[in-house]
Design a protein that fits this description.
D-Maltodextrin-Binding Protein, domain 2; 2 domains; alpha+beta; globular; five-stranded mixed beta sheet
Length: about 475
C-alpha cells in the first residue's frame, strides 16, 4: 500500500512539475489556478470517527479533490473524540472531523486547553435519540397515535413518566452521549429539559465534570460505534448519536429511535473540520486548499437532489470508513429514516452537506454551543454578550472559507450563487424558530436567549 501511495505521489508530482514548466513557457495556464499559492505541506493525515457525517473527507479523497489541490491525504479512523482532539493538538494529525463543540471547548479551556479553529462546517442534522425496546414500550403508552402510528415529533414529555418511575424505585436512569462538548450531549439535554427532565449540571470550578449534579437522567460518554451494544447490555437505556448507530439499533431489533435532531432543531449544525491555530498559521495555502476540496465534496454529496447518495453509501460502507452494512447506512443517508421497525418515513434533509449554506462557519452556530455550555455549567460564570461573540470569531473562520470559495468560483467549479454573499455576510443567521420547545434563538443576544429556559443556568447563576 505504501508503495502504491508513493508511486502515485511521484507521478502526480512529476505531472505538476511538467505542468508548471509548461505554464512558464507558453503562459497557457490561467494565473487564477495558482492564486492561493502552492501548498506548504503536501502529505497530510486527517482523523475521523466512524460516522456517516465524515463523508466529505471520504468523498474528497475518493473523488481526487485533495489531489486536485496538490494534497496527498491519509484518512485514519480514531478510537474516540478525546484521542482525535489530542492528536490534532500535538500534531500527529493535521486536522480532523470534529464535534462542533470541540474547537470551542478547547479554546475556552473546558477539558484540554488549546487553540483550535474551524473554517468548514461539515454538515447539518444527522443525529437521533434512541431508547431500548423496554423503555419504548413504556413511553409508547403516553405517545399520541394516528392511523396506528406514533405522532412525531416525540417529545421527552412522554419519557418523563418512565424516568419518574425509575426515581420512585430508587434506580438511576442512564443514557449515553458521545462527548461532553458534543452536539449529541447538548441535543439530548435540550430534548430532555424541554420535557421537564433535568439532565444535570457540570461544575468544573469545583472539580466536578460528571455533568450529573441535580440530574433526573444521568448522561455518560460512550463511543459512537459502541452505543448499540452498550444499550443491549443494559448499561444505558438510551442514547443520542449520529448515524448509522441509531439505524443499527433498528436492524438489530434492540431499540427504537424516537426523534431526530432535525425535529429538535431544524437544520442544526453538526460536525466541523478542525485544525490547530498554529497549523493554520504555518500552512495557510494548504489550509485553503483543504477547504476547497471539502467544499467540492459537500456539493457532490448534495447535488441534483442527492443523486450521488447511493454511491456515497457504497463508499462509506467500506471498512476503512464507517464499516457498517450498506442497508444500515442507506436507511438515513438516502432521504429516509426508520423509527420503530417498519415505520420508515421520508426525511430528505436528515443529512445535509451543502444545501442551506451548510458548509459556512457561522458565528451564530458557535455561539449556540457556547450558550449550551453556559446553560449546563461547563462555563461556570456569567459572560457578556461580547465575550460570546469574541470567542466565536476566534474559533470560527469564515474569512478562510471565503478565500477557498472565491477560488472555486474563479476556477468555474462552483458559482457565486452557491455561497453566501460574502460582501454583506455578517456571520449571524436570522433568528431561528424551529426548536422543539418553540423558543427562538438569536445569536446576537446570547444572554437574553438563556433567560428563556426554565431548566438551566442563566444570568449570575452558579453551581
Amino acid at each position: 500500500m505504501k508503495f502504491i501511495f508513493g508511486r502515485r505521489h511521484f507521478l502526480k508530482k512529476s505531472m505538476m512539475t511538467l505542468a508548471m514548466a509548461a505554464s512558464v513557457v507558453t503562459a497557457s495556464i490561467s494565473s487564477s489556478a495558482y492564486a492561493v499559492g502552492e501548498p506548504e505541506k503536501e502529505e497530510l493525515k486527517f482523523g475521523f470517527i466512524k460516522l456517516t457525517d465524515m463523508a466529505p473527507l471520504a468523498i474528497a479523497y475518493e473523488k481526487g479533490y485533495f489531489e486536485d489541490e496538490g494534497l496527498y491525504v491519509t484518512l485514519e479512523a480514531q478510537a474516540n473524540w478525546k484521542v482525535l482532539l489530542d492528536r490534532v493538538i500535538d500534531g500527529q494529525l493535521d486536522g480532523a472531523h470534529m464535534l462542533a463543540g470541540q474547537p470551542l471547548g478547547a479554546t475556552i479551556g473546558f477539558g484540554t486547553k488549546a487553540d483550535v479553529i474551524t473554517a468548514f462546517s461539515m454538515d447539518l442534522n444527522g443525529n437521533a435519540i434512541t431508547v431500548s425496546n423496554d423503555i419504548w414500550k413504556e413511553m409508547k403508552k403516553h405517545v399520541p397515535h394516528k392511523d396506528g402510528k406514533p405522532v412525531h415529533p416525540i417529545k421527552a414529555d412522554y419519557l418523563k413518566p418512565v424516568v419518574d418511575q425509575f426515581k420512585k424505585e430508587g434506580k438511576p436512569f442512564k443514557m449515553g452521549m458521545v462527548f461532553p462538548v458534543s452536539t449529541h450531549n447538548y441535543e439530548l439535554r435540550y430534548w430532555l429539559a424541554a420535557g421537564g427532565i433535568h439532565p444535570g449540571f457540570y461544575a468544573p470550578h469545583k472539580g466536578d465534570t460528571s455533568g450529573n449534579l441535580k440530574a433526573d437522567a444521568l448522561l455518560s460518554v460512550t463511543p459512537p460505534p459502541q452505543m448499540p451494544s452498550t444499550m443491549e447490555a443494559g448499561t444505558i437505556y438510551g442514547y443520542c448519536v449520529g448515524e448509522p448507530w441509531n439505524q443499527q439499533a433498528v436492524f438489530k431489533g434492540i431499540g427504537v429511535p424516537v426523534i431526530t435532531d432535525y425535529e429538535i432543531w431544524k437544520d442544526n449544525p453538526e460536525k466541523v473540520f478542525g485544525v490547530s491555530k498554529a497549523w493554520a498559521e504555518k500552512y495557510p495555502n494548504t489550509h485553503i486548499r483543504v477547504v476547497k476540496a471539502l467544499i467540492r465534496a459537500a456539493l457532490w454529496l448534495d447535488e441534483d437532489n442527492n443523486k450521488n447518495r447511493p454511491e456515497a453509501v457504497k463508499i462509506l460502507a467500506k471498512s476503512q470508513y464507517v464499516g457498517a452494512d450498506y442497508d444500515v447506512i442507506a436507511n438515513s443517508m438516502t432521504g429516509t429514516f426508520e423509527y420503530e421497525k417498519g415505520d420508515k418515513r421520508d426525511v430528505p434533509d436528515f443529512n445535509v452537506f451543502f444545501r442551506y449554506n451548510a458548509t459556512y462557519p457561522y458565528y451564530s452556530d458557535a455561539i449556540w454551543y457556547l450558550t449550551q455550555m453556559r446553560r449546563w455549567g461547563q462555563i461556570s460564570e456569567k459572560k457578556s454578550d461580547s465575550w460570546y461573540k469574541d470567542i466565536a470569531k476566534k474559533v470560527y473562520r469564515p474569512d478562510i472559507y471565503a478565500k477557498a470559495a472565491k477560488e472555486l468560483i474563479k476556477e468555474g467549479k462552483l458559482k457565486a450563487s452557491d455561497f453566501p454573499e460574502f460582501a454583506t455576510e455578517t456571520g449571524f443567521r436570522k433568528p431561528q424558530t424551529h426548536f422543539i420547545d418553540g423558543i427562538t434563538y438569536d445569536g446576537s443576544k446570547p444572554n437574553e436567549y438563556l433567560t428563556k429556559f426554565k431548566i438551566g443556568l442563566k444570568g449570575k447563576d452558579k453551581i
